Amino acid sequence: MTFEDAYFKQKVLKHDSLEPFGFITSEKGYEFRKPLMAEGLEARLFIDFEGKLTGQVVDVDFDESYDTFRSPHATGTYVGQVREAYGDLLSQVAEFCYDDQLFSSPQANRLANFIVKEFSDQADHPFEKYPDYLPFRVDGKWYALFSPLKGEKLALSGEKASLVYDVVNIKVDPRQMDKLLDLDGIYPSYHMSKKTWISLVLDETIPDQTIFELIRGSRSLVAPKHLRKASEPHYWIVPVNLKYYDIGEEFSASEDILWTQKASMQKGDFVAIYITAPTKAIRYLCQVLEANIANQGYRDEESIKELMRIKPLYSFNDSDFDSERLKCFGIKTVRGPQHMTDDLVQALSPYLKGK
């Protein structure tokens, strides 16, 4: 790993940010130069069209690369200052021109993006000692566990034994087990029940669509009853920050409103509106009247692509379903659209009778 690689691990390039930062387009990619400190040094960065960054610190007087700072054993005030100044520049580029990714492999990131888009589930970090182990859950139960894993843990041999892969463990119907294990890239699960779980190596061996279908099946096997059938309404909880959007004022002005859709809501779904800090409570229970409406200028932000029409069914006091009570129903945080737990659906069911 190079000095530069450490700053761009699990990053993806935002091409449209390069010019505003100061990069200049060339035949092979993008170039950037900047004086470094006041010692006749210049940082020269190059990013190819795939997003790979390489760089040099150059002694301008001699037009020679200064590489002493790259050695972790090199010490001294001057070396330390160069290392720090160049590292600061790389940090700025990483923050301004790249987005974070959860995983090292492109296929693992595509799979994670599919899960978020398809189900609005978010990965979490349950193991402090193993921050790279990321499960996706539904109603608190795992259905996909991502982790970096050496090939030898999956009984791979030769060169593959020492390589580290992004792997996902998923649950399957035991009746499918033998058939699935015959496929390249699928192995008996590592560190989970081999009767009902398998491990998939995310190195492009298995087609995306095959993995997507297996993920849907895994989630269906562990999902609570109210989430298993697409034909039935789903139950969501969605955060709203009143500092940026006064949803109460809109409800006062109209029986139903057009509202930003950030998950796979469908007509007939139920949505609990959670007011963020300092309130931290569910204030409205709504139903989706129409979904997937194209945003044709209704919302100014270009990032808002779709809207949904929602109607309030019930308004709560902020003490009825505050954050402390929600914890009792398995809702620890509300950072984005997510499915309700079975316990919360049950608690809200009296307000849904006849709806």
Describe the fold and architecture:
The structure is a single chain. The chain has 355 residues and is an alpha+beta fold. It has three domains: 5-100, no CATH class; 106-223, Aspartate Aminotransferase, domain 1; 235-351, ph1033 like domains (ph1033 like fold, Roll), CATH 3.10.590.10. Helix content is 23%, strand content 30%. It has helices at residues 18-21, 77-97, 106-119, 177-181, 208-222, 225-228, 247-253, 323-328, 342-348; strands at 11-13, 24-25, 29-36, 41-48, 53-59, 64-65, 98-100, 134-138, 141-150, 164-171, 186-188, 197-201, 235-240, 257-260, 270-275, 281-294, 306-315, 338-339. Helix 3 (106-119) packs across helix 5 (208-222). The longest helix has 21 residues, at 77-97. The radius of gyration is 25 Å and the shape is globular.
Tell me the layout of helices and strands:
Elements: E1 11-13, H1 18-21, E2 24-25, E3 29-36, E4 41-48, E5 53-59, E6 64-65, H2 77-97, E7 98-100, H3 106-119, E8 134-138, E9 141-150, E10 164-171, H4 177-181, E11 186-188, E12 197-201, H5 208-222, H6 225-228, E13 235-240, H7 247-253, E14 257-260, E15 270-275, E16 281-294, E17 306-315, H8 323-328, E18 338-339, H9 342-348
Parallel strand pairs: 13-15
Antiparallel strand pairs: 1-7, 2-3, 3-4, 4-5, 5-6, 8-9, 9-10, 10-12, 11-12, 13-18, 14-17, 15-16, 16-17
Helix pairs in contact: 3-5
